[in-house]
Amino acid sequence: MTDRTGGARRTVITAAALARPAASLSGYTVGVTSDRRRDELAALLESRGARVVLAPALRIVPIADDAELRAATRACLATPPDIVLVSTGIGMRGWLEAAEGWGLAEPLRAVLARAYLIGRGPKARAAIRSAGLTDRWSPEGESYDEVIDHLRARGVTGRTVALQLHGDSQPEYREALAAAGARVIEVPVYRWAPPIDSAPLARLVDLITGHLVDAVTFTAAPAVHALLSAAGPAAEPLVEALRTRVLVACVGPVTAAPLRRHDIPIVSPSRARLGALVRTIVEELPKRAVSLEVAGHALTLRGHAAVVDGDLKPLAPAPMAVLRALAAAPGRVLSRAALLHALPRGADEHAVEMAVARLRAGLGAPGVIQTVVKRGYRLPN
C-alpha cells in the first residue's frame, strides 16, 4: 500500500512484512532503567532482536534492621490496623522476614489475618497468599488513587490504616487518608538508593538526547525522577526527546504517573508484567518506522538499521543520521551543509562525504543514495 508524499513513495508496513525476520525489535535500541529483574527484561528484549542499554536508575536497599520499620511494626501490634495496603510483593515478604528476625512474625501474621488486606497488584496479592493470608480487594488499575477512592467509599473514619510504602514516603496518599478520618501507619520496608555506578545512567541520558535510543522502559516511578535528576542541565532536551522521538514504555499506571505530569506520552500493557511490557514494545515500536520505495528498493528505517528489500542492514550513527535526514525529505536534494546539521557537532563537510560513502556501502543497494552534482544528495523516485 503506497501513497505520494514529496517525491519517493511512502510504503505502509503490512502485518505480513512485520512477520519477516527483520521485524520485531531488530534494529532498535531499548534503554532499561530497572535494577531488580533487569537481566530478565534485557533477555526478553534481546530475544526479540533489540540492542539493550542497561542503566539502572535506582537500587532497592532493604531496611530490615531500620528503627523506623521496627517502630511501625510495633505500632501495628499495639494498635492493630483495620486495613492494610500491601503495595508490593517484595515489600510484604521483606516485612515478614524482618519481623521473623525480631521474633515478631507470628504476632504480626495474627494482626494481618484480622485486617482488611488490599493487594495493590498481582505480585502483592501473591505475596499475601504465600504468607497464608487472604486479600480482600485489589484495584483493577493497580493505582493508589483507586485504593484511596475505594477506602473513602468504604469509610475510614476512626479506622487505622497501615500503608506499606513503595520505596519512599507517599505524603499525598497519607494525607488523603488522614483527611478522610483515618489514622495512618506508614510501613517503610525498603528504600530507593542511587545506583552504585552512575555512569550507565549518565550515558543513557546522552544516548536519548543524541537520538541513539528508540525506547526506554520504566518499572518504578522513582526511576523517572532519578533519570531526570541525572540529566541535570540536559533535563529539558531529555524531556523533549521523550515527548517526541522515544517510545516510553511503563509497566503500569503508577510508574507512568510522573511521566504524564511532564506531558510525556507513554505506552503500557493491560497487565503489569515484564512479558506484557515487551509485547507492547514489539507492537508499538515498529509502527514508528519510516518506509519508502526508492530506486526500485523497499527501504525501511529503524533505530540503528535500515531494512533493504527485507534484509536488515545495521548502520553506524553518522550514516544513519544522513539517511534519516534524506528520508525526511524524499525526492529533495539536500546540500552537504544541510546534512552537516544531522551529524554530531564538530563535523565538517568532509565528514558528510564520508558518512554518505559509508551509508552506500552499508545499504548495498546501488542507486538508493543519488549524488546531484554541485548540489548534494537525495533519495530518488
Can you tell me about this structure?
The structure is a single chain. The protein has 381 residues and is of the alpha/beta class. The chain folds into three domains: 2-58 and 195-288, Rossmann fold (3-Layer(aba) Sandwich), CATH 3.40.50; 61-192, 3-Layer(aba) Sandwich (Rossmann fold), CATH 3.40.50.10090; 290-378, Orthogonal Bundle (Arc Repressor Mutant, subunit A). It has 16 helices and 18 strands. The strands form five sheets. Strands 1-2-13-14-15-16 form a six-stranded antiparallel sheet, covered by helices on one side. A four-stranded parallel sheet has the order 4-3-11-12, sandwiched between helices. α10 packs parallel to α12. The chain is elongated and about 85 Å long. 40% of the residues are buried.
Question: Looking across the biggest beta sheet, what order are the strands in?
Answer: 1-2-13-14-15-16
Which parts are unreliable, with pLDDT below 50 for 5 consecutive residues or more?
1-23
The biggest beta sheet, please? 6 strands, antiparallel
Quick one: CATH class of the largest domain? Alpha Beta
First-last Cα distance: 16 Å
Tally of DSSP β-strands: 18
The amount of beta strand, in percent, is: 15-25%
Compact overview of the structure:
With 381 residues, the chain is of the alpha/beta class.
